[in-house]
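Incident log, structure service

09:12 report received: a user says their structure output differs between two submissions of the same chain.
09:20 pulled the input from the user's history:
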Amino acid sequence: MDLGISGKTALVTGASAGIGRGIALALAAEGVRLAVTARRRERLESLEQACGANLVIIECDLMQEDAPQRIAAAALQGLGAVEILVNNAGGSRAFKLDASETQWEEALTLNFTRQRQLAHALLEQMMARKWGRIVNITGKSEPEGINGAFAAKAAMHAWAKGLSREVGKHGITVNSIPPGRIMSEQIERNYTAEHRKWQSEHEIPVGEYGQPADIANLVCFLASPRARYITGAVIPVDGGLRRYQF
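09:34 re-ran on a clean worker, output below:
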Protein backbone atom coordinates (compact mmCIF):
# COMPACT_ATOMS: atom_id res chain seq x y z
CA MET A 1 0.00 0.00 0.00
CA ASP A 2 1.31 3.43 -0.94
CA LEU A 3 0.83 5.51 2.18
CA GLY A 4 1.47 8.76 0.39
CA ILE A 5 4.02 10.09 2.86
CA SER A 6 7.16 9.98 0.72
CA GLY A 7 8.69 13.44 0.79
CA LYS A 8 6.87 14.44 3.99
CA THR A 9 8.87 15.71 6.96
CA ALA A 10 8.81 14.28 10.47
CA LEU A 11 10.32 14.85 13.90
CA VAL A 12 10.75 11.78 16.13
CA THR A 13 11.74 12.23 19.78
CA GLY A 14 13.50 9.55 21.80
CA ALA A 15 14.78 8.09 18.54
CA SER A 16 18.07 6.64 19.72
CA ALA A 17 16.80 3.17 20.67
CA GLY A 18 13.82 0.83 20.97
CA ILE A 19 10.44 2.02 19.74
CA GLY A 20 11.69 5.45 18.67
CA ARG A 21 14.46 3.99 16.56
CA GLY A 22 12.01 1.54 14.97
CA ILE A 23 9.64 4.39 14.13
CA ALA A 24 12.41 6.45 12.56
CA LEU A 25 13.57 3.50 10.46
CA ALA A 26 10.03 2.80 9.25
CA LEU A 27 9.34 6.42 8.33
CA ALA A 28 12.67 6.68 6.51
CA ALA A 29 11.81 3.53 4.55
CA GLU A 30 8.61 5.28 3.44
CA GLY A 31 10.65 8.17 2.08
CA VAL A 32 9.97 10.61 4.93
CA ARG A 33 12.67 13.22 5.63
CA LEU A 34 13.55 13.06 9.31
CA ALA A 35 14.71 15.10 12.26
CA VAL A 36 15.52 12.92 15.27
CA THR A 37 16.31 13.83 18.84
CA ALA A 38 17.63 12.08 21.93
CA ARG A 39 20.33 12.51 24.56
CA ARG A 40 22.89 10.19 22.93
CA ARG A 41 24.30 11.66 19.73
CA GLU A 42 26.33 8.57 18.87
CA ARG A 43 23.12 6.51 18.84
CA LEU A 44 21.49 9.04 16.51
CA GLU A 45 24.49 8.91 14.18
CA SER A 46 24.20 5.11 14.15
CA LEU A 47 20.50 5.50 13.29
CA GLU A 48 21.43 7.81 10.40
CA GLN A 49 23.71 5.11 9.00
CA ALA A 50 20.98 2.49 9.38
CA CYS A 51 18.46 4.71 7.59
CA GLY A 52 20.81 5.23 4.67
CA ALA A 53 19.75 8.87 4.46
CA ASN A 54 20.76 12.20 5.93
CA LEU A 55 18.92 13.04 9.13
CA VAL A 56 18.66 16.26 11.09
CA ILE A 57 20.27 15.15 14.35
CA ILE A 58 19.29 17.08 17.48
CA GLU A 59 21.09 16.07 20.66
CA CYS A 60 18.96 17.33 23.53
CA ASP A 61 17.75 16.42 27.02
CA LEU A 62 13.99 16.96 27.25
CA MET A 63 14.27 17.83 30.93
CA GLN A 64 15.97 21.10 30.01
CA GLU A 65 13.46 23.93 30.28
CA ASP A 66 14.05 25.29 26.78
CA ALA A 67 14.23 21.88 25.10
CA PRO A 68 10.92 22.05 23.19
CA GLN A 69 11.75 25.42 21.66
CA ARG A 70 15.30 24.39 20.73
CA ILE A 71 14.16 21.09 19.22
CA ALA A 72 11.36 22.73 17.24
CA ALA A 73 13.66 25.45 15.93
CA ALA A 74 16.37 22.98 14.91
CA ALA A 75 13.88 20.68 13.18
CA LEU A 76 12.28 23.56 11.28
CA GLN A 77 15.64 24.92 10.25
CA GLY A 78 16.83 21.53 9.04
CA LEU A 79 13.66 20.34 7.33
CA GLY A 80 11.92 23.57 6.39
CA ALA A 81 8.69 22.27 7.95
CA VAL A 82 7.56 19.56 10.36
CA GLU A 83 4.44 17.86 9.03
CA ILE A 84 4.56 14.82 11.31
CA LEU A 85 5.44 14.87 15.01
CA VAL A 86 6.02 11.62 16.89
CA ASN A 87 6.17 12.23 20.63
CA ASN A 88 7.99 9.09 21.71
CA ALA A 89 10.41 10.19 24.45
CA GLY A 90 9.53 9.33 28.03
CA GLY A 91 10.44 7.21 31.00
CA SER A 92 8.79 5.33 33.84
CA ARG A 93 9.61 4.23 37.36
CA ALA A 94 7.43 3.13 40.25
CA PHE A 95 6.91 5.53 43.15
CA LYS A 96 6.56 4.87 46.85
CA LEU A 97 3.89 6.58 48.92
CA ASP A 98 6.42 9.14 50.09
CA ALA A 99 7.60 10.09 46.58
CA SER A 100 8.90 13.64 46.58
CA GLU A 101 7.49 16.60 44.68
CA THR A 102 10.71 16.58 42.66
CA GLN A 103 10.02 13.00 41.53
CA TRP A 104 6.45 13.88 40.56
CA GLU A 105 7.54 17.00 38.70
CA GLU A 106 10.20 15.07 36.80
CA ALA A 107 7.73 12.35 35.74
CA LEU A 108 5.07 14.81 34.61
CA THR A 109 7.59 17.00 32.80
CA LEU A 110 9.23 14.14 30.92
CA ASN A 111 6.04 12.27 30.04
CA PHE A 112 3.52 15.06 29.44
CA THR A 113 4.63 18.68 29.66
CA ARG A 114 7.50 18.53 27.16
CA GLN A 115 5.39 16.63 24.61
CA ARG A 116 2.60 19.18 24.93
CA GLN A 117 5.02 22.09 24.62
CA LEU A 118 6.74 20.60 21.56
CA ALA A 119 3.43 19.98 19.81
CA HIS A 120 2.27 23.53 20.46
CA ALA A 121 5.61 24.89 19.21
CA LEU A 122 4.93 23.19 15.86
CA LEU A 123 1.18 23.70 15.55
CA GLU A 124 1.20 27.12 13.91
CA GLN A 125 3.18 26.01 10.87
CA MET A 126 1.03 22.86 10.56
CA MET A 127 -2.12 24.98 10.63
CA ALA A 128 -0.65 27.31 8.00
CA ARG A 129 -0.24 24.31 5.68
CA LYS A 130 -3.68 22.90 6.57
CA TRP A 131 -2.09 19.51 7.22
CA GLY A 132 -0.35 17.79 10.11
CA ARG A 133 -0.05 14.60 12.11
CA ILE A 134 0.73 14.27 15.82
CA VAL A 135 1.24 10.74 17.13
CA ASN A 136 1.96 10.21 20.82
CA ILE A 137 3.53 7.02 22.15
CA THR A 138 1.93 6.84 25.58
CA GLY A 139 1.21 4.09 28.11
CA LYS A 140 -1.29 1.73 29.60
CA SER A 141 -4.40 2.70 31.54
CA GLU A 142 -4.04 -0.06 34.15
CA PRO A 143 -1.68 1.25 36.84
CA GLU A 144 -0.59 -1.46 39.28
CA GLY A 145 0.40 1.17 41.81
CA ILE A 146 1.67 4.72 42.09
CA ASN A 147 3.74 5.75 39.10
CA GLY A 148 4.21 9.31 37.92
CA ALA A 149 4.43 8.20 34.29
CA PHE A 150 0.98 6.54 34.48
CA ALA A 151 -0.55 9.82 35.62
CA ALA A 152 1.32 11.71 32.92
CA LYS A 153 0.21 9.31 30.18
CA ALA A 154 -3.41 9.68 31.28
CA ALA A 155 -2.92 13.43 30.96
CA MET A 156 -1.51 12.87 27.47
CA HIS A 157 -4.63 10.97 26.42
CA ALA A 158 -6.92 13.72 27.75
CA TRP A 159 -4.84 16.50 26.21
CA ALA A 160 -4.58 14.74 22.84
CA LYS A 161 -8.34 14.19 22.69
CA GLY A 162 -9.01 17.83 23.49
CA LEU A 163 -6.41 19.06 21.02
CA SER A 164 -7.84 16.86 18.27
CA ARG A 165 -11.15 18.69 18.59
CA GLU A 166 -9.48 22.06 18.19
CA VAL A 167 -7.22 21.34 15.21
CA GLY A 168 -9.26 18.91 13.12
CA LYS A 169 -10.59 21.77 10.99
CA HIS A 170 -7.00 22.58 10.04
CA GLY A 171 -6.36 19.11 8.60
CA ILE A 172 -4.39 18.00 11.66
CA THR A 173 -4.99 14.70 13.45
CA VAL A 174 -3.84 13.79 16.97
CA ASN A 175 -3.69 10.18 18.11
CA SER A 176 -2.07 8.13 20.87
CA ILE A 177 -0.57 4.63 20.88
CA PRO A 178 -0.07 2.83 24.22
CA PRO A 179 2.45 0.02 23.61
CA GLY A 180 2.28 -3.35 25.27
CA ARG A 181 5.42 -5.39 25.88
CA ILE A 182 7.69 -4.27 23.04
CA MET A 183 11.23 -5.65 22.96
CA SER A 184 13.88 -3.07 23.79
CA GLU A 185 16.96 -2.58 25.93
CA GLN A 186 14.69 -1.43 28.75
CA ILE A 187 12.54 -4.56 28.54
CA GLU A 188 15.61 -6.79 28.56
CA ARG A 189 16.95 -4.87 31.55
CA ASN A 190 13.72 -4.96 33.56
CA TYR A 191 12.34 -8.42 32.76
CA THR A 192 14.22 -11.70 32.76
CA ALA A 193 14.00 -14.08 29.84
CA GLU A 194 12.09 -16.48 32.10
CA HIS A 195 9.48 -13.83 32.96
CA ARG A 196 9.11 -12.81 29.31
CA LYS A 197 8.50 -16.43 28.36
CA TRP A 198 5.94 -16.92 31.14
CA GLN A 199 4.09 -13.72 30.31
CA SER A 200 4.06 -14.53 26.61
CA GLU A 201 2.52 -17.92 27.30
CA HIS A 202 0.02 -16.87 29.99
CA GLU A 203 -0.92 -13.21 29.55
CA ILE A 204 -0.41 -12.19 25.93
CA PRO A 205 -3.02 -13.70 23.61
CA VAL A 206 -0.79 -13.65 20.52
CA GLY A 207 1.89 -15.50 22.52
CA GLU A 208 4.90 -13.23 22.25
CA TYR A 209 6.36 -9.82 23.01
CA GLY A 210 6.07 -7.28 20.21
CA GLN A 211 8.78 -5.65 18.15
CA PRO A 212 9.37 -1.91 17.53
CA ALA A 213 8.15 -2.43 13.97
CA ASP A 214 4.71 -3.38 15.33
CA ILE A 215 4.37 0.14 16.72
CA ALA A 216 6.09 1.74 13.75
CA ASN A 217 3.67 0.22 11.24
CA LEU A 218 0.72 1.91 12.93
CA VAL A 219 2.62 5.20 13.26
CA CYS A 220 3.27 5.23 9.52
CA PHE A 221 -0.41 4.64 8.79
CA LEU A 222 -1.63 7.27 11.25
CA ALA A 223 0.88 9.71 9.75
CA SER A 224 -0.52 9.17 6.27
CA PRO A 225 -3.37 10.80 4.34
CA ARG A 226 -5.11 7.41 4.45
CA ALA A 227 -5.76 7.94 8.19
CA ARG A 228 -7.41 11.33 7.65
CA TYR A 229 -10.60 10.30 9.52
CA ILE A 230 -8.88 8.89 12.59
CA THR A 231 -8.23 11.45 15.31
CA GLY A 232 -8.52 11.73 19.08
CA ALA A 233 -8.08 7.96 19.28
CA VAL A 234 -6.13 5.81 21.73
CA ILE A 235 -5.08 2.64 19.90
CA PRO A 236 -3.19 0.02 21.96
CA VAL A 237 -0.61 -2.15 20.22
CA ASP A 238 -0.15 -4.89 22.79
CA GLY A 239 -0.93 -8.31 21.34
CA GLY A 240 -4.15 -8.33 23.38
CA LEU A 241 -2.34 -7.98 26.74
CA ARG A 242 -4.60 -5.27 28.14
CA ARG A 243 -7.93 -6.42 29.50
CA TYR A 244 -9.99 -3.26 29.24
CA GLN A 245 -12.63 -3.31 26.46
CA PHE A 246 -12.24 0.29 25.27
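09:41 both user submissions now match this output. Likely a transient worker issue. Closing.
09:42 reviewer note: The mean pLDDT is 94. The beta strands are 9-13, 33-38, 56-59, 84-87, 132-137, 172-177.
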